Amino acid sequence: MSKQEWTDSESKRLVKMYNKGVGWLEISKVLDRTPDSCRMYYRNHIGETNKSGKLKTPEYISSNTPRVGIFDVETLPLISYNWSLWDQNIGIEQVVEPTGLLSWSGKFLNEPEMYSDILTPKEAKARDDKRISKSCWDFLDRCDVVIGHNLIDFDSKVANTFFLKHGLPPIKYVSIDTLKIARRTFRFDSNKLDYLNRRLGLRQKIENEGFRLWRECSEGDADALKRMQDYNIGDIYALEELYYILRPFVKHMNIALYSEADTEMCPVCGCEKLESNGYYYTPAGMWESVRCTDCKCVSRRKKNLLDKDKKKSLLINS
Known about the structure:
Blueprint: H1 8-19, H2 24-31, H3 35-46, E1 48-49, E2 55-56, H4 59-62, E3 68-76, E4 79-80, E5 95-97, E6 100-108, E7 114-118, H5 121-126, H6 130-141, E8 145-148, H7 151-165, E9 174-177, H8 178-185, H9 193-199, H10 211-218, H11 222-246, E10 274-282, E11 285-292, E12 298-300, H12 308-313
Parallel strand pairs: 3-8, 8-9
Antiparallel strand pairs: 1-2, 3-6, 4-5, 6-7, 10-11, 11-12
Helix pairs in contact: 2-3, 9-11, 10-11
């Protein structure tokens, strides 16, 4: 048997472990395969299991679209010695406890289930984030695309830091950062998630008592940890609504790359219903512009409409 082939026994073991919530890293160790090969075999040949126990192909697979995760993390505050409240330059030797991973939450776009994990009171006191780093890795490893607010400069870097700390391998996914989209495309008075959603009439973040909540979580308060997880989950719902509003302005995503079909589709939402929207001009040519009838994203076809004689006559402005 070649390494690429799967036996019925291996397939059944994979399904059994996956349905119990075992992550791809642990599954790969049991089956002596790479996490990517286990995940892709599951996605391409097995699919999800419904309530009756019968295997079915998930909608996101049958429609040939990537699995898009919405993601957010919270961290424990760094603890240090200080001589003053103002104008401090804290040295490494003043650090008593470094920051730690406190919680993470995520869900898949167009799917109802929420995924979330947070430190237990015992783990919070010990700042033991190994377990939730692993569950966080398992969630992100299922994603082809990850959406976050300040994802690139914060959430992804935080997650990667604790993956490295606990010996977890890197994960590849396309990053969509709604904060960068807001900064690049608009001129709001503030680009914070809560402010953007309030201005746009979208779902609000859950309010909390401020730093006291993070301090109580650091001290292992069970009730505070529950409130923190609720707050973290609330960010996901708020972020999902913001993404749907900003989606037409996403520039570096192309859903069609994940599909084997040769039909035209909107690069950001995958809709095949496109309408002509005039022409798009560059110094090198002219292309037909199209608008998605669903998300309203504007894109262009790849065929240059200029004939070769016209192309030859074009001058370059040096």
